[in-house]
């Protein structure tokens, strides 16, 4: 977040930020300037050794943060020295142009203000985005209904006219078992065991459930060559059950198939699209068992009335999620969903990221 936030100093101190960046890319003119640059590079290089992430040799975010901290300090110093003179000179930009160019610049500014307002206040309400910079750690539910005190979420997944489309349909599923190392390294990413005992004790003392999940980290790393070395479920304990929208399950299966991995996955389809935490934990409309051999062979079976002891497993229909094609299109760049863990006896969303 420091890496995200430091560049935003430009909008508060544009002149100082511009001058500081010009100094970064310019050759030093004084011995003190040269010494500062050498010390900065040495400090950034040393900070790379502070990486503590399991499975990662260097977390490049740390030296990037170090460099940005140094630039940010220079920005503040320049602003303290020259802010009065820059303010007297007047704003840079619109004053130098007029007519059509000025109107276009103002329209461009208005467009981006509206775009940011929609991103912050509209995308989650409509259900166009889940994993994003606007998602709080608390965590706001984006599938299965809203847990926000005031606002609804994922309306497009709930409205009847939109949930029948390919981009917003599929309902909610609960993943109950999975042998795919690719998928288990991706979701739900339970890192609770990585917390020091003292931290967990402190969390419990304040009524926190003491669980932590990092699915965004796994999703952003991109390559399974990195993810597979990070802590994730690999057997030896109960499977970490979680829920995702049906659309996200289709994406997950497409990725696992691209890895040519053989696996078995079982999930429950939940009735309806909205419910409380007990519904997310226990409700079931049907059960599906999927077996894939990693070479294109698929065996999909469904138990349509799981509460009926006489019911037998039957072949999946074409409308079952594993037999539907992978989701495509520009919308899929935004519709990336958090997996919501199902923690036995805990009817709330654990902290995520």
Instruction: Please report which band the strand proportion falls in: under 5%, 5-15%, 15-25%, 25-35%, 35-45% or over 45%.
Output: 5-15%
Number of helices: 13
Low-confidence stretches: none
Radius of gyration: 25 Å
Secondary structure class reads alpha+beta
Shape: globular
Q: Distance between the terminal alpha carbons, to the nearest Å?
A: 12 Å
Number of strands: 9
Mean pLDDT: 85
Specify the helix fraction band.
Answer: 40-55%
Q: What features would you describe in this structure?
A:
By secondary structure, the protein is of the alpha+beta class. The chain contains 13 helices and nine strands. Helix 3 packs across helix 5 (61-89) and helix 4 (31-47) runs antiparallel to helix 5 (61-89). The N and C termini lie close together (12 Å). A seven-stranded antiparallel β-sheet has the order 7-6-5-4-1-3-8. The protein is globular, with a radius of gyration of 25 Å.
Protein traits:
353 residues; alpha+beta; globular
Please specify the SSE layout and strand pairing.
Elements: H1 2-5, H2 9-12, H3 14-24, H4 31-47, H5 61-89, H6 99-126, H7 160-163, E1 172-178, H8 181-186, H9 197-205, E2 212-213, H10 215-221, H11 224-227, E3 242-245, H12 246-258, E4 263-269, H13 277-282, E5 286-292, E6 298-303, E7 314-315, E8 340-341, E9 351-352
Parallel strand pairs: 2-9
Antiparallel strand pairs: 1-3, 1-4, 3-8, 4-5, 5-6, 6-7
Helix pairs in contact: 3-5, 4-5
């Amino acid at each position: 977040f420091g890496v995200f936030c430091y560049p935003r100093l430009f909008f508060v101190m544009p002149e100082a930020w511009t001058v500081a960046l010009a100094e970064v890319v310019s050759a030093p003119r004084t011995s003190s300037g040269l010494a500062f640059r050498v010390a900065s590079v040495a400090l950034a290089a040393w900070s790379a050794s502070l990486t503590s992430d399991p499975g990662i040799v260097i977390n490049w975010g740390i030296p990037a943060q170090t460099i940005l901290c140094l630039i940010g300090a220079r920005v503040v110093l320049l602003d303290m020295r020259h802010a009065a003179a820059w303010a007297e000179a007047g704003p840079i930009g619109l004053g130098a142009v007029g007519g059509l160019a000025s109107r276009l610049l103002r329209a461009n500014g208005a467009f981006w203000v509206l775009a940011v307002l929609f991103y912050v206040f509209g995308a989650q309400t409509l259900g166009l985005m889940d994993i994003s910079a606007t998602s709080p750690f608390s965590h706001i539910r984006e599938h299965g209904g809203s847990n926000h005190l005031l606002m609804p979420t994922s309306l497009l997944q709930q409205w009847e006219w939109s949930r029948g489309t390919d981009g917003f349909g599929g309902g909610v599923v609960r993943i109950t078992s999975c042998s795919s190392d690719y998928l288990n390294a991706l979701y739900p990413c339970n890192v609770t065991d990585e917390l020091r005992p003292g931290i967990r004790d402190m969390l419990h003392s304040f009524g926190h459930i003491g669980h932590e999940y990092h699915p965004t980290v796994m999703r952003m790393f991109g390559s399974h060559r990195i993810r597979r070395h990070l802590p994730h479920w690999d057997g030896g304990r109960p499977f970490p059950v979680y829920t995702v929208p049906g659309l996200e399950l289709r994406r997950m299966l497409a990725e696992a198939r691209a890895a040519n991995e053989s696996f078995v996955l079982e999930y429950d389809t939940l009735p309806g699209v909205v419910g409380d935490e007990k519904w997310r934990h226990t409700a079931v409309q049907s059960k599906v068992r999927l077996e894939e051999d990693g070479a294109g062979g698929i065996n999909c079976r469904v138990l349509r009335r799981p509460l009926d002891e006489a019911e037998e497993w039957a072949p999946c229909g074409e409308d079952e999620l594993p037999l539907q094609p992978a989701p495509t299109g520009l919308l899929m760049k935004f519709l990336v969903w958090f997996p919501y863990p199902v923690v036995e006896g805990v009817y709330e969303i654990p902290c995520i990221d």
